[in-house]
């Protein structure tokens, strides 16, 4: 009886899906396949075209930015050592953090129940550029481009541990299963290059091993179709796994095989209306085109010596943060919508003075070099660059506050990011923290507000940008109050 019931239910589901497919989905699927097949027939045509697949008529208005490069500093860089100068902390060194400042702030298990003693900055600050932004001497190259940057010193989040905080920073929600910002933009705006994915991810290959994981859901598509997820570009012989043909297979044979496979997938799609089949068709075609486009992208032999000098000595090491910054610029030149770099190990619970300076050396010159490079190529105006991590660090020392072995614990109540280009107002410092760099007290900017502002710069009204899943209309900025921070926009 149960087997019979199951078979009847399966038949009903098949019939229902077939009916729904016949009533509209088949036409869309056929058009999608037709478009892909036409592109395949012209695989050597390098003309860039804007491809948007969501049917929402985006952008809603003229954008200031066309693309995003997100320099993600994973682990929580210390705003106290890098950007948020608090000279008064020297007089408070070693004193207990007042309860009125902490105000019940949750602590991690590493410092809960331990004395919260003030540890002043280990670095020296100077006012930089005509705008007088405060930048640490640990970041001399970023200090040199300070007038191109907009520092947001009042960022706040509500997550205190790495994985949920980074998930919140990138997807708008601390639980996994939501699309990342790059996936939302892939869904909403598509690409200007049909030979590369809309969303590409570059992970730093560290000189030493890293014990900080970077989870795939950070660049995942969540409930969006998987065609919108980030594609990881590796620093290896095969930059994208399983992309290359077996040795000896001619290109025309691969083309014929894909044509036949796409026809079979289309038949199955007409029977079921399953959108993942459309994704499969598109991904096969994208992989075919990437077989030609990726080697050209990753071959930097055409870059002049001046490029490597600009990005720093580590830029010749494949997979380094500096080398990935060069690839990010090359991807932006090719019209990729969202490029995300991940550099881990900013998590300095101890040995802050040596550990944080090492991460600065990894990233400082290359980050500044990217800004200079985009500007000299005329690309900074319509490329939005974002630098930042998931939260900041606490003013209370972890371990002995007056020891070189001391560090800082996680801190979500205030941290600093910077942005440049893409319609952002340059030479500006926005928001402020209290005298302890513990609470954002002037113009706090929640992660949701950052998302709303980024979408706005790309011509998207965040409250109208939705995707229906499980009967709900989801959006990147969620259902809680969020705002476009218009003071940041030029």
Question: Can you tell me about this structure?
Answer:
The structure is a single chain. The protein has helices spanning 2-41, 79-82, 89-92, 99-102, 140-144, 162-171, 181-189, 251-272, 275-298, 305-311, 321-333, 352-376, 447-457, and strands at 67-73, 125-128, 133-136, 149-156, 199-203, 231-233, 338-343, 383-388, 392-398, 407-411, 415-420, 428-430, 432-433, 440-442, 445-446, 467-469, 472-474. The protein has 490 residues and is of the alpha/beta class. It folds into two domains: 1-41 and 251-302; 60-235 and 318-488, Alkaline Phosphatase, subunit A (3-Layer(aba) Sandwich). Helix 1 (2-41) crosses helix 8 (251-272). The chain starts with a helix and ends in a 16-residue tail after the last strand.
Rg (C-alpha, Å): 24 Å
Classification by helices and strands: alpha/beta
CATH class category of the largest domain: Alpha Beta
Share in β-strands: 15-25%
End-to-end separation: 68 Å
Q: Enumerate the spans where pLDDT stays under 50 for 5 or more consecutive residues.
A: 10-51
| Second-tier CATH architecture of the largest domain | 3-Layer(aba) Sandwich
Taken together, the total number of domains comes to 2
- Number of DSSP strand runs: 17
Number of helices: 13
How would a crystallographer describe the biggest sheet?
9 strands, mixed
As for the CATH topology of the largest domain, it is: Alkaline Phosphatase, subunit A
What is the general shape? globular
What are its keywords?
490 residues, alpha/beta, Alkaline Phosphatase, subunit A, 2 domains
């Amino acid at each position: 009886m149960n087997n019979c019931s199951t078979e009847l239910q399966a038949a009903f589901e098949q019939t229902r899906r077939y009916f729904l497919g016949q009533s509209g989905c088949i036409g869309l699927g056929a058009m999608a396949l037709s478009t892909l097949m036409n592109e395949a027939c012209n695989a050597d045509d390098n003309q860039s075209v804007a491809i948007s697949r969501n049917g929402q008529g985006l952008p809603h208005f003229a954008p200031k930015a066309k693309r995003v490069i997100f320099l993600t500093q994973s682990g929580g860089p210390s705003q106290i050592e890098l950007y948020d100068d608090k000279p008064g902390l020297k007089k408070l060194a070693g004193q207990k953090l007042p309860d009125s400042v902490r105000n019940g702030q949750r602590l991690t298990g590493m410092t809960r129940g331990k004395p919260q003693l003030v540890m002043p900055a280990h670095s020296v600050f100077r006012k930089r550029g005509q705008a007088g932004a405060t930048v640490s001497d640990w970041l001399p190259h970023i200090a040199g481009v300070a007038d191109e940057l907009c520092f947001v010193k009042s960022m706040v989040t509500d997550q205190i541990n790495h994985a949920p905080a980074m998930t919140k920073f990138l997807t708008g929600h601390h639980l996994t299963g939501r699309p990342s910002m790059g996936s939302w933009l892939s869904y909403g705006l598509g690409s200007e290059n049909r030979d590369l994915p809309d969303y590409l991810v570059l992970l730093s290959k560290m000189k030493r091993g890293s014990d900080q994981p970077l989870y795939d859901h950070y660049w995942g598509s969540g409930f969006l179709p998987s065609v919108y997820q980030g594609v990881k570009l590796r620093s290896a012989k095969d930059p994208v796994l399983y992309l290359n043909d077996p040795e000896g297979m001619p290109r025309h044979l691969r083309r014929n095989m894909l044509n036949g496979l796409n026809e079979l997938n289309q038949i199955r799609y007409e029977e079921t209306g399953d959108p993942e089949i459309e994704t499969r068709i598109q991904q096969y075609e994208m992989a075919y085109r990437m077989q030609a486009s990726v080697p050209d992208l990753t071959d930097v032999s055409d870059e002049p010596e001046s490029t490597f000098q600009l990005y720093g000595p580590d830029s010749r090491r494949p997979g380094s943060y500096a080398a990935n910054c060069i690839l990010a610029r090359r991807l932006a030149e090719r019209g990729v919508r969202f490029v995300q770099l991940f550099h881990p190990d900013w998590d300095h619970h101890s040995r802050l003075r040596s550990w944080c300076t090492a991460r600065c050396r990894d990233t400082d010159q290359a980050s500044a070099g990217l800004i200079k490079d985009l500007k000299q190529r005329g690309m900074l105006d319509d490329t939005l660059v974002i630098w930042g991590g998931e939260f900041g660090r606490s003013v209370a020392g972890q371990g002995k506050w007056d020891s070189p072995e001391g560090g800082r614990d996680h801190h979500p109540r205030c941290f600093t990011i910077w942005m440049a280009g893409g319609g952002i107002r340059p030479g500006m410092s926005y928001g402020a923290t209290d005298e302890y760099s513990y609470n954002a007290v002037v113009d706090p900017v929640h992660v949701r507000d950052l998302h709303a502002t980024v979408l706005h710069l790309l011509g998207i009204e965040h409250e109208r940008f939705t995707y229906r899943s499980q009967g709900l209309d989801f959006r990147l900025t969620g259902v809680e109050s969020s705002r476009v921070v218009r003071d940041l926009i030029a």
